[in-house]
């Protein structure tokens, strides 16, 4: 069973044995983006994330230790104001962080804030993206800070699910 891993349940039903072919992951070497390379108002390359599955939501619940039944119990969630299972807001925030690090590389965030606008649900496919909204050079010319605006938009409806900002300090060169 080399190149396979066992998943407790595959929601799309493609393999009743719950085995997924993995292949070996290539090591992805990321470089840190430099302050001089950032262009004001530049678009961040979009990432298509999803579809969000119940398995993703339950795995996130285990990692975050947030077992609110609105995230995994269909009967409870259907009686709630949400009218069904919803993804954790912090899970969607993590997706936005993934989008930012895909653009920035290994840079460390100085500040990261988001606001969930509408609920993400199983089956949603999110388009993550954004743009550079501010460049603040250091007075000594050693780089500066860059502020990114980020969004998670539902692919099917065009509805905004989450928006956020990242502030990061980058070196000059």
Describe the protein's architecture and organization.
With about 170 residues, this protein is of the alpha+beta class. The protein has helices at about 55-65, 75-80, 90-105, and strands at about 5, 20, 45-50, 110-115, 125-135, 145-155, 160-170. The protein has a single domain, classed as Thiol Ester Dehydrase, Chain A (Roll). About 20% of the residues lie in helices and about 35% in strands. The strands form two sheets. Strands 3-5-6-7-4 form a five-stranded antiparallel beta sheet, covered by helices on one side. Strands 1-2 form a two-stranded antiparallel ribbon. The N and C termini lie far apart (about 45 Å).
Which series of helices and strands comes N to C?
EEEHHHEEEE
Radius of gyration: 19 Å
CATH topology: Thiol Ester Dehydrase, Chain A
Largest sheet: 5 strands, antiparallel
Strand order of the largest sheet: 3-5-6-7-4
Looking at CATH, the homologous superfamily is Hotdog Thioesterase
CATH architecture group name: Roll
β-strand amount: 25-35%
Helical content stands at 10-25%
What is the overall shape? elongated
Mean pLDDT: 87
Task: Give the strand tally.
Answer: 7
Give the CATH level 1 class.
Answer: Alpha Beta
Number of helices: 3
Detail the poorly predicted runs: 1-6
> What class do helices, strands and sheet pairing give?
alpha+beta
